[in-house]
Amino acid sequence: MASPYIELEVGERTVKVTNPDKVYFPEIGGTKRELVEYYVSVGDGALRALRDRPTNLKRHPDGIHTEAIYQKRMPPRHPDWLRTVTVTFPSGRKADSLRVTEVAAIAYCANLGTIDFHPWQVRASDVEHPDELRVDLDPQPGLEFDAARKAAFLTREVLAEAGLTGFVKTSGNRGLHIAVRIEPRWDFVQVRHAGIALARAVEERAPHLVTTAWWKEERGERVFIDFNQNARDRTIASAYSVRARPTAPVSTPLTWEELEDADPADFDIRTVPARFAKLGDVHAAIDDEAYSIETLLDWYASDDRGDLPYPPNYPKMPGEPKRVQPSKARPSTSGNDQN
After folding, report:
1. Is residue 58 within 8 Å of 114, Cβ to Cβ?
2. DSSP run (H or E) holding 57
3. What is the DSSP letter of 35?
4. Can you give the pTM of this predicted structure?
């Protein structure tokens, strides 16, 4: 017996939604149909965040309480109109990843059970040079959202001193993300170095509030700035992405004025469509100007502390310190310690 389905007109496409009444968010009774219709309702904003970017999918085809499928490759069978782009992972392996070019592609993936969309910080036209510098403000256990808010405003001040403008959004949890559109002139290593310089500058102004400590045992109750989100194949949830949590929260773009008293719990799959219909995309200007990161790179070059650890799945990188947490590090027995 054929599965029940509905069809949605999305731009020039007809997108089939199979089993539309399947419950994805049991705590609120949120269905697959509601998820797909949500993405269509905020389509212009979601597309702006994803357009032409290699995009990883976090799928929960049987609901958010089932194990996630992290999909970095497009399956061989997909509609002819769905686009792909070839990316290279840190290992050197390559893959054809989803390239979002229209709202219908987002709706199609939502029908496959995609809750979160995680775009790379590059465009299909040049996958080796990021056009976005990302700041991920992650409050450590014991902290509330207000700590991330304070860290975000401090980050904004430092960005301004470097001649940069950032666009802030909720993470969909307790944190915040800030995106800076940059000129695609620098590779992943250089952009990551710029992110480290920015994070250190923020940390120096409020070491009681912010940390760049990669190892959790050293962070304490502070907001961690995850500089490694600027590394190759590291992604964050896109603007307007739903998160796989019981209340279906949304990673929601804000103005800096809104951030002053914003509560991330106010932004979810059922409230954001009305907000979008009223305000449109408050990050619509993000692509109006691309900035240079030369000032941040100068800051990095003048800092004798050098690099910080990469994520564990990366090959050993030039200039990287030992990739072992301090409590497990053994004392060096020679001047030529190997990682």
Report:
1. yes
2. strand 54-59
3. H
4. 0.94
Collapsing DSSP to helix, strand or coil, 165 comes out as coil
pLDDT tens digit string along 209-240? Answer: 999 999 999 999 999 999 999 999 999 999 99
Rounded to whole angstroms, the Cα distance separating 315 from 92 reads 10
Residue tagged 């920015």 (tokens): 198
Residue 186: helix, strand or coil by DSSP? coil
Please give the span between the terminal C-alpha atoms of the chain, in angstroms, as a whole number.
58
* 23's tokens: 């419950």
50 Cβ contact partners less than 8 Å away, ≥ 6 residues apart: 100, 106, 117, 119, 238
Is residue 306 classed exposed, middle or buried when 0-12, 13-18 and 19+ CB atoms within 10 A define those classes? exposed
Quick one: 274 exposed, middle or buried, by C-beta within 10 A (0-12, 13-18, 19+)?
Answer: exposed
Cβ atoms 35, 105 nearer than 8 A: no
Please tell me the chain's helix, strand, coil percentages from 3-state DSSP, rounded to the nearest 5.
Answer: 30, 20, 50
DSSP state of 244: S
Helix (H, G, I), strand (E, B) or coil at 250: strand
Q: How far does Cα 223 stand from its chain's mean position?
A: 17
Look up tokens 């799928």; give the residue.
Answer: 59
Compute the distance between CA of residue 162 and CA of residue 294 in angstroms, rounded to an integer. Answer: 9
Q: Which residues of 194-227 are buried (b: 16+ CB within 10 A; e: fewer)?
A: bbbbbbbbbbeeeeebbbbbbeeeebeebbbbbb
What CA–CA distance (Å, rounded) separates 193 from 297? Answer: 7
Tokens coding 26: 């049991």
Rounded to whole angstroms, the Cα distance separating 40 from 26 reads 22
What confidence tens digit (pLDDT) does each residue in 90-144 have?
999 999 999 999 999 999 999 999 999 999 999 999 999 999 999 999 999 999 9
CB atoms within 10 A of CB 13: 17
